[in-house]
Sequence to fold (459 residues):
Amino acid sequence: MSIKTTSVILAAGKGTRMCSSIPKVLHTLAGRPLLEYALDLGLHICNMSPIVVVGFESEKVQEFIGDRAKVVLQNQQLGTGHALYQTADVLRGQSDMILVWAADMPLLSKDMLEAVVNCQSENEGPVSIVTSISSNHRGFGRVIRSEGGEVQAVVEQSDATSEQLTTNEINVGVYCFDSLWLWDELSTLKPSANGEYYLTDLIESAVLQSHKVGVVTANAGDEIIGINTRVHLAEAETALRARINQSWMERGVTLIDPDNTYIGPNVEIGSDTIVLPNTHLEGDTIIGAECTVGPNSTIRDSVIGNHCKVECSVIEQAKLEDEVDVGPFGHLRAGAHLDSGVHVGNFGEVKNSYLGPGVKMGHFSYVGDATVGARSNIGAGAITCNYGMDKQKHRTEIGEDVFIGSDTMLVAPLRIGSRVRTGAGSVVTKDLPDDSLAVGVPARVISRSVDDKVQSQDE
Ligand code: UD1
Ligand code: MG
Fold:
């Protein structure tokens, strides 16, 4: 019969050392809450969905977890041993082994967790732990060994003697327990000097019962960065950024300055794209091949086609087809859809609008809640006045091959036919038929055909 393992993620602590009103596990790393990393691992590691112990600001944490994991509440944060004990009612008799780790270790790998599960499957004793040799302790517990090299105990930094503090073997905080042994032992844990029930005290309990502690020794790489302070958070951010950026460079993306390029874990980038410094690619963003992005740009939850250029711009929840060129200083907001060959120049803003193939809006314009037909030109300073005095948003429909003159105000709701031209500074308040030319404030049609001679405005 196969061994059944359940994973438990400890996430109830306040994270006092973060000096924050936000629970530690909801602080973000590369734009994702720390807990997201633990959940991701938990969903891929054991044959049952993980259990998360929540406590401090439990409603916020539970809301974030949603239905991705079972949640157990630790009402008072009395330590890691107490936290795990809260799962006894749910897990007793349900699982052969219990894999435990802390949600403040976001860079742990699946391999490490599997290694400790494998170690415990072969261990006759009731517990296996992960240790690492590192002079950068980050406040971790120290692993105490006997002269013969057997693990004797884990001692917390605050309780360790000066001699114990000289050891460089640290407790990574990943454990796999035999569940038949675990629950009774947890019930007998005694509080430490600071009143907390330490999960780590179970190591010594096992040794005192003459059991052997299984040990997996991990490399002291970035995997073992545990987040107890914001300094650790910044270290983890740097490490994860280096990991992500290296992997993109290995996959054919040029990063001019990888230390100053910020790419989220869910971003996709096509080959031969060049990312210039101080560019932030965030959320579920996809960038095509052979694009140039940056410098100083943010692209969030957006899809960019191939051969696009984005310079010093902010793009959020927008879609760009191929060969689109934005910036410098463009702002594409939610629902902006730019078809192939569109050009949005400096200080152009587009929101909730479709710009057809080849549309140009070179300078200082705003297009919101609009559709702009192919090849139309939006002149400098032109604006769709989409927000009415009725406090509602209204649409502007613009046909193909339209020429919107500089500083035109298009007062929505409005339909502008194809091949329409508007004079500079016109304020268009009424629909304009195909081929017409309108000028003035409010704008009047002075010609109904592109072939017409333009008539005098006084007529
Ligand atoms: C813990 C270990 C330490 C190890 C380190 C590795 C103990 C006593 N110490 O220390 O040996 O080197 O992790 O990261 O276990 N939590 C709860 N409820 C609580 C307290 C904590 O759920 O009452 C959770 C926290 O949310 C956190 C995890 O347990 O995710 C670890 O707690 P933390 O206070 O960060 O322990 P460390 O001091 O890091
Ligand atoms: Mg910690």
Summary: The first helix runs from residue 34 to 45. The chain has a mean pLDDT of 95. DSSP finds eight helices and 42 strands in the chain. Residues 214 and 447 are 88 Å apart (CA to CA).
